[in-house]
Amino acid sequence: MALKKTKYIWMNGEFVEWDSAKIHVLSHVVHYGSSWFEGIRAYKTPKGTAVFRLKEHIQRLAKSVKIYRGQLPYEVSELIESTKELIRKNELESCYIRPVAYRGYEDLGVYPLNCPIDISIATWHWGVYLGKEALEQGVDVCVSSWQRLHNNSLPSISKAGGNYLNSQLIRMEAIQNGYTEGIGLDHNGNVSEGSGENMFFVIDGVIYTPGMDSSILEGITRSSTITIAKQLGYEVKEISIPRSILYTADEIFFTGTAVEITPVRSVDRIKVGDGKAGPITKSIQKAFYDIVEHGNDPYGWLDYI
Ligand code: PPE
What we know:
The chain is α+β, with helices and mostly antiparallel strands and 305 residues long. It has two domains: 117 residues, D-amino Acid Aminotransferase, Chain A, domain 1, CATH 3.30.470.10; 159 residues, Alpha-Beta Barrel (D-amino Acid Aminotransferase, Chain A, domain 2), CATH 3.20.10. It has eight helices and 17 strands. The strands form two sheets. Strands 8, 9, 10, 11, 12, 13, 14, 15 and 16 form a nine-stranded mixed beta sheet that branches. The site of ligand PPE has 15 residues, from helix 6 and strand 14.
């Protein structure tokens, strides 16, 4: 499946034609993985196109860069405006948005601070991430033989390009073995997250999710899910999740911008619950889509373009 081109990509303050949005092969990022990115979605709602939690995403991008002693070359407010302007210029009603900051061209060698931080924003149509039926039927996943990195090796709260080499190992192994996604365990052998999504578990009506000490990305869909679940009256606990829970939980689901809220129906070929989306997963899914598709937004999460 090839990328579906749109007209423009925003690069360092300018709207550049899609095919001209290029960087030099000796840019620092190409050699050392020094990029930081976001995945954001804009939805078509009855009141027009709206971006989901745009400010939180751009703020997370700034933090991702800060850990690596850098600073975005634009203010958060400028990036928010540029993102919205890009969606308008590309005439998109709904889309996936990919801001990416990267160490650019100037010098080479591991030490990055002589290279500029450049930034681009692209938008395109990215439909259902883990396959068509995934949202309703759930996905079949496995525990990866690859582990997530310790926070003292690569900080998982920075959404850095380099971290995704680990994600690629997890995803390739899973797909080549016939699964849709793989789950990485943390350095203690507890559940961390999927290669591109956070995880939630339902046990006896209580909702659990791995905490910050399990090498997770602090997902914005994850935090939205926690808010929604509490509002629906569920108890939510952020704790270490032993691997065995993957085989005994009543319900399991992924959260993420790309996957949204996707049920897991089996882990290592062991059925989760009765092998389809459970009632609590469904109630959270419904509340989520009520916001992003119907525009019923009690939390002010939608930013209209
Ligand atoms: N963990 C990882 C490792 C991750 O990449 C994502 C997002 C999440 C958790 C969920 O975070 P959030 O989107 O803020 O709820 N992954 C993005 C990139 C996926 C890709 O294939 O590229 C995404 O979902 O957009």
